[in-house]
Design brief:
The chain is α+β, with helices and mostly antiparallel strands and 334 residues long. It is built from twelve helices and seven strands. The longest helix has 33 residues.
């Protein structure tokens, strides 16, 4: 049986609002809202912590109110932050963009991985804690159900997101992966110059990446001894950011708040660093020797890769090009 035309139009309008409000969540994500993966009611999903969600909403409340008012035809005012956040949450919830969740029993304390629908559990057990009182360790807990509190935003809970991520980008990356696998499988029939060019590009990029990580490690350890966290390209390993965004922040500096055993570790690192500097000062040849070892290692890796990926382990082919026939003496010398 077909659905009435009016109902179909309402569903279509709700879907359009959901897609537009998803952009608001993505806007908050670009402003630092940390969205993590989880298993929600036995299916993969995304979630945010209520406190962080509230914090980012307050930081960008004026812009968020402007976008939500434009999409949902509302008049949410940013002058009263707490009330505005409750109204924004209701609008998100009205299009099934967000839902309150609680941690599943047995999940680890630090890393949240498994969540359950809070509202369903609270209604099932007739209590705002969302738990069965027969299994509660605290017998003095008052069993009550406050409906207003049940469907309102509370920073102490988790919130599962149903954001429109779009599938076009996933399909594009899938096609790229398939093409890359096919191209790699057909590498033996590539033109020689193309193989050399590809190897050079990949080799140079690998050296640059290793160099960045080595410099990051040296700088971090050096400033760690003085009580600071100094990171070069701090967003480089963030999976949520794109390639360009990963390199926008060049450096970040934060003062550490260490306990006594970290202070002991910093003193030990300072002694080791000072001893290494003293050894280099007394024996300057160590720098040349270290440089020679690194350069030789880079050359060895390059020649191995050139022989393996460019020439296909075909040292005999290069000999054959120089001489039509290879004698037994040549083989013995080889």
């Amino acid at each position: 049986m077909k659905k009435p035309q009016k109902e179909l139009e309402e569903l279509k309008a709700q879907k359009e609002k959901w897609m537009e409000l998803s952009k608001v969540i993505k806007f908050l994500e670009s402003k630092g809202l940390e969205i993590k993966d989880c298993v929600y009611n036995k299916s993969r999903s995304e979630f945010v912590k209520g406190k962080l969600f509230e914090e980012k909403l307050k930081e960008n409340l004026e812009e968020v109110c402007k976008q939500v008012n434009k999409i949902m035809k509302t008049e949410i005012s940013p002058t009263k932050p707490d009330k505005a956040i409750q109204e924004i949450y209701k609008q998100f919830k009205s299009v099934n963009l967000i839902s309150k969740a609680c941690r599943e029993d047995g999940d680890k304390k630090k890393n949240v991985k498994r969540l359950l629908p809070y509202e369903q559990l609270a209604l099932l057990f007739k209590c705002n804690c969302g738990k069965d009182h027969e299994e509660l360790e605290n017998p003095d807990h008052q069993k009550k159900l406050d409906v207003d509190k049940l469907f309102s935003f509370e920073p102490s809970y988790f919130y599962v997101l149903n954001v429109n991520r779009g599938k076009s980008k996933i399909y594009f990356y899938l096609i790229l992966i398939i093409v890359a696998i096919l191209m790699y499988a057909l590498m033996p029939v590539w033109p020689y110059k193309l193989r050399v060019a590809l190897y050079w590009i990949s080799y140079v990029l690998l050296c640059i990446m290793i160099g960045i990580y080595v410099v990051k490690l040296i700088v971090y350890v050096f400033f760690y001894t003085f009580g600071y966290d100094v990171l070069i390209f701090p967003d480089m390993d963030d999976p949520k950011l794109g390639f360009i965004d990963s390199f926008k922040r060049v450096i970040s500096v934060e003062k550490r708040k260490d306990k006594w055993y970290f202070l002991v570790l910093r003193v030990i690192l300072a002694i080791i660093t000072g001893y290494i500097a003293f050894c280099v000062y007394k024996n300057p040849k160590l720098i040349d020797q270290t440089q020679k070892i690194i350069v030789d290692a880079i050359k060895d890796v390059y020649h191995y890769g050139e022989d393996r990926f460019v020439n296909n382990n075909s040292t005999a082919i290069s000999l054959k090009n120089k001489k039509k026939y290879i004698s037994l003496e040549d083989l013995d010398n080889f």
